[in-house]
Amino acid sequence: MSVNIDTVEENIVSELRLSTIQSKVYVLVVKKGKMSAQDIAEHLNISESEANQAATSLIQNGGFIDITKTEFESMHPRFAVVNMYRRMCERENIQFKKNLLVDNISIILEKPYDDARTKYNR
Q1: Which of 22, 58, 62, 69 gives a 20 to 30 Å CA spacing to 86?
Q2: Could you tell me which residues come within 8 angstroms of residue 26 by beta carbon, excluding any fewer than 6 positions away?
Q3: pTM of the model
Q4: Are 88 and 17 a contacting pair, CB within 8 Å?
């Protein structure tokens, strides 16, 4: 199975064992940049509480950093995806080793991440 921008959320769920909402929140913030829980909720048509809970769990899983109490930002996908994979391995008591799908997730998300954070691409 290969990873592309259309299947990246599904691959995050299967390989990093995040929930569908966590996956959607992660990909949204990667693509859009720093966001509040309210903005996340509006984009995904979920409650602000759900958005906040998902974003907070992504901090705990190594994918997000909290900018303020109400704003969230993704770490660079090359770091964040490996962090989330490592933490999943620890939670699931699985040996941490190279995973090509995990590597491909980070590669696919790198350009949207950079585009959202580069003023020349806006």
Answers
A1: 69
A2: 12, 18, 58, 63, 64, 74, 80
A3: 0.92
A4: yes
